Amino acid sequence: EIVLTQSPATLSLSPGERATLSCRASQSVSSYLAWYQHKPGQAPRLLIYDASDRASGIPARFSGSGSGTDFTLTISSLEPGDFAVYYCQQRNNWPPTFGPGTKVEIK
Amino acid sequence: EVQLLESGGGLVQPGGSLRLSCAASGFAFSTSAMTWVRQAPGKGLEWVSSIAGSAGTTYYADSVKGRFTISGDNSKNTLYLQMNSLRAEDTAVYYCAKDYLAGQLSYYFDYWGQGTLVTVSS
Known about the structure:
The structure holds two protein chains of two kinds. Chain A is mainly beta.
């Protein structure tokens, strides 16, 4: 099973700042990595799939990059609604696995 | 508009059973792959089970294989998760999710429900 590690665990930033979230896989997942946003009590939301493709309706301030074992989610300028937990997920190897999450909180 | 609404969660004793339902609308349920994902208290997301294709091929995490059964009723646009021999470690919020690719199981999930809480405790 592929283990995904996310860093940092918590990111404290102010609205308007740039957020950079990292996801590292225990072995290569090629480009088969997704990012989700999850707010308490709400349904998770697909942001990015195949490492860098934005899902339908996702604003351009969200971007993904990376391949192999190292991936990054960047939020170019944080808006109030962006404070949430972000999970990466791989589908290259079965079973699909999720990272432990990065909480982006208001500083 | 795609909507997924889970129900059926609750408190159950260890060894007990529970059936979760997920009512789907706004998309072609009969040709969509569907998945259950859970989140234990204070933990991250864990893939549980998926069902795909017209033949309804099913897949399970090792942690639930032999105890949980995923199924779908196309006439009711509803996904189910039958959970037997429940354990304390099955305590979690259970989400149903729709696969991103139409007609295929890609293991990317573009729509999710808001979840239903299952608590296994005596």
